[in-house]
């Protein structure tokens, strides 16, 4: 495979396609007809580094994503002819050809990139030097691998996912051209709530933060597992959307979600001086006192770091083990006793009449000198 | 024995011995209904990552409704705990303290002697029975223990919720009223409450599922289910097997001395 030149390969594919003539579904933004080739699921090659690369574009997914009105060339700026040479990596911070309706300037994700650079996830330290293991730090696509719109609609006080015809009818009465109303509606409503389900947010963070080698390189606790131990985590896993995920606590309320700061940074949402404010954000533990902040969220049951939890856990596990092992052993031997019910090393003779029974019982009671006496001790 | 219930009733030629009043049976129904509800709405949350958790939690009402059901059932259980405590205290006062006073024998010593001779309180006889049971299980004797009115296993079954609820209940209430309680105690108390609530709950549920349900459901002579919790009466065969001392005492009290049957020794009833 390595000796097949990519351009040659694309030309070959194009020839095949022109013969077969599958009617291409071309979307509005696809001026250069890129989808003609990129819609084929098998469009792939092994690159110079020996890695498998897939160039297939899922039209359905792309059509429901926020970039659907961008032309391919807006992001892939270095492609100027078809067939094209291997394209460069897209720089999300560049200006694209979409014009912001609020201010006539060309749109760019540059400010997001700048915010990210200031956060704990930035690749450079305060002095502008690359941090240790800089390649571990995320860029846009590390988290935003498949951005999708997630619109919702209100109708008669009920919130539902998707665009409702009734909700959008008022937009459509003026904005009749093209898909503007739908696009703008999706753009706005998607941003009115979290664009990801909380479970997905946690998966995004877990990609790095649950990776053992990564955690060891950066000396980090397994915060994903400890989060999943909390009621917050468990409710999120069971589908709650009202329970906090990583971003809700690690971003200062009202701040850009890309500005996640370490707990040693004084402005961080999880700095020890700010935790009580974060917990008591509106919609969360509003009525709580500041000392709620001494609750420990990321408990690892480490003996040195969390001694109380460690010893409590030992206590309850030991209690459970003692009680259950005692009774399960008892049940086991009880069932085993029934295998040879008549066998016994020593045998007692059965009482022949009730007088003997009573005297035996009395004798037993006397010999053990029961404090409670004859039949006292009976409640009823 | 309260007058409402006959100690022995005979039906279709079988003697039945009174064990539990309707008052006690209703308390038991309230207890197990609330505990099962609590387990069904609590354990999917405790094991949220298991495959069965989401369907069960959704069935129990999902993340919005299931917590409300859980808290309602918890409130019922705590109320039952308070009610039951008042129940035995009032009975103890009426049936023991008042009688002691009438006889003019009420002293601190006699008060506590009466208290510790209540049928549910563990005593030396229980230790004797446990030792006898292990001797029997290891084939050192052919005579199973002769239990009094309440065997040590029933006492353990009784005290399991009696110590479990005071641990689970307040911890659960603290987690429920977490915002309000933070004005009184620091947040780290909720960490402790969390472990108390979830781990004690696991112990309780495992104990009920394996041990209590073995005693009343899985054991060969009980399978598929014992009926004493419904009828309040235990038949003569089981009475001889499980409460021989009590059986002899009740038979004598009711003038049936001549009809007392011998104790079942090993192998006499399970001849399969």
Structure description:
- The complex is a heterodimer of chains A (380) and B (272).
- By secondary structure, chain A is mainly alpha-helical.
- In chain A, 39% of the residues lie in helices and 6% in strands.
- Among the domains of chain A are: 1-91, no CATH class; 151-192, no CATH class.
- Chain A has helices at residues 6-20, 35-38, 59-63, 72-75, 110-118, 140-143, 165-172, 180-192, 198-209, 212-218, 223-229, 231-237, 246-250, 275-279, 307-337, 354-367, and strands spanning 44-46, 52-54, 95-99, 106-108, 152-155, 158-161.
- Chain B has a single domain, classed as Transmembrane di-heme cytochromes, Chain C (Fumarate Reductase Cytochrome B subunit).
- The chains are: A mainly alpha (380), B mainly alpha (272).
- The interface between A and B is large, with 72 and 82 residues.
| Largest sheet, strands/sense/barrel of chain A | 2 strands, antiparallel
What's the N-to-C terminus distance of chain B? Answer: 38 Å
Radius of gyration of chain A: 34 Å
Q: Tell me roughly what share of residues is in helical segments of chain B.
A: 55-70%
Strand content of chain A: 5-15%
**Number of structural units classed as domains of chain B:** 1
| Helix content range of chain A | 25-40%
Structural class of chain B: mainly alpha
Overall structural class of chain A, as computed from helix and strand content, comes to: mainly alpha
Largest interface here, residues on each chain? A-B, 72 and 82 residues
Q: In CATH terms, what is the fold-level topology of chain B? A: Fumarate Reductase Cytochrome B subunit
- The termini of chain A sit apart by 91 Å
């Amino acid at each position: 495979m390595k000796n097949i030149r990519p351009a040659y390969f694309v030309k070959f594919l194009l020839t095949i396609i022109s013969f077969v003539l599958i009617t291409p579904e071309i979307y509005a933004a696809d001026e250069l007809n890129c989808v003609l080739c990129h819609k084929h699921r098998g469009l792939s090659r092994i690159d110079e580094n020996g890695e498998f690369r897939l160039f297939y574009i899922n039209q359905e997914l792309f059509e429901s994503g926020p970039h659907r009105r961008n032309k391919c060339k807006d992001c892939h700026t270095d492609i100027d002819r078809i067939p094209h040479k291997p394209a460069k990596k897209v720089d999300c911070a560049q200006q694209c050809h979409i014009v912001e309706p609020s201010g006539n300037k060309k749109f760019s994700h540059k400010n997001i990139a700048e915010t990210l650079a200031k956060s704990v996830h930035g690749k450079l330290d305060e002095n502008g030097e690359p941090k240790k293991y800089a390649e571990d730090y995320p860029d846009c696509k590390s988290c935003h691998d498949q951005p999708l719109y997630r619109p919702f609609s209100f109708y008669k006080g009920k919130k539902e996912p998707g665009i409702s015809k009734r909700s959008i009818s008022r937009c459509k009465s003026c904005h009749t051209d093209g898909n503007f109303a739908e696009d703008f509606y999706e753009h706005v409503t998607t941003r009115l709530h979290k664009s990801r389900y909380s479970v997905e947010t946690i998966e995004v963070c877990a990609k790095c933060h649950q990776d053992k080698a990564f955690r060891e390189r950066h000396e980090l606790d397994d915060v994903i597992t400890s989060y999943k131990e909390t009621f917050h985590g468990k409710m999120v896993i069971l589908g709650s959307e009202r329970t906090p995920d990583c971003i809700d606590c690690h971003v200062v309320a009202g701040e850009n979600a890309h500005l996640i700061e370490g707990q040693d940074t004084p402005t961080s949402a999880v700095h020890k001086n700010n935790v009580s404010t974060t917990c008591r954000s509106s919609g969360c533990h509003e009525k709580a006192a500041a000392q709620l902040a001494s609750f420990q969220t990321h408990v690892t049951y480490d003996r040195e770091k969390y001694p109380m939890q460690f010893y409590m856990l030992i206590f309850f596990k030991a209690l459970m083990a003692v009680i259950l092992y005692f009774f399960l052993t008892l049940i086991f031997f009880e069932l085993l006793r029934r295998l040879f019910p008549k066998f016994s090393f020593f045998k007692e003779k059965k009482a022949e009449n009730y007088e003997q029974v009573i005297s035996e019982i009395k004798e037993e009671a006397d010999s053990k000198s029961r404090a409670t006496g004859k039949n006292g001790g009976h409640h009823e | 024995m309260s007058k409402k219930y006959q100690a022995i009733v005979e039906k279709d030629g079988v003697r039945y011995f009174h064990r539990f009043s309707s008052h006690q049976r209703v308390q038991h129904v309230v207890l197990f209904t609330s505990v099962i509800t609590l387990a069904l709405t609590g354990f999917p949350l405790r094991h949220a990552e298991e495959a069965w958790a989401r369907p069960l939690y959704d069935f129990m009402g999902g993340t919005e409704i299931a917590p409300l059901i859980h808290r309602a059932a918890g409130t019922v259980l705590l109320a039952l705990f308070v009610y039951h405590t008042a129940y035995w205290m009032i009975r103890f006062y009426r049936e023991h303290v008042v009688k002691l006073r009438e006889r003019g024998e009420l002293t601190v010593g006699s008060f506590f002697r009466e208290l510790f001779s209540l049928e549910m309180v563990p005593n030396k006889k229980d230790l004797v029975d446990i030792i006898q049971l292990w001797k029997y299980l290891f084939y050192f004797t052919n005579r199973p223990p002769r239990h009094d009115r309440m065997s040590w296993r029933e006492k353990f079954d009784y005290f399991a919720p009696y110590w479990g609820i005071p641990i689970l209940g307040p911890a659960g209430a603290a987690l429920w009223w977490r915002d309000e309680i933070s004005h009184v105690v620091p947040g780290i108390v909720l960490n402790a409450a969390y472990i108390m609530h979830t781990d004690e709950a696991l112990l309780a549920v495992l104990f009920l599922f394996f041990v209590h349900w073995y005693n009343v459901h899985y054991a060969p002579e009980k399978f598929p289910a014992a009926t004493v919790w419904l009828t309040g009466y235990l038949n003569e065969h089981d009475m001889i097997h499980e409460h021989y001392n009590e059986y002899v005492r009740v038979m004598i009290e009711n003038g049936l001395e001549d009809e007392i049957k011998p104790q079942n020794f090993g192998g006499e009833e399970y001849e399969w």
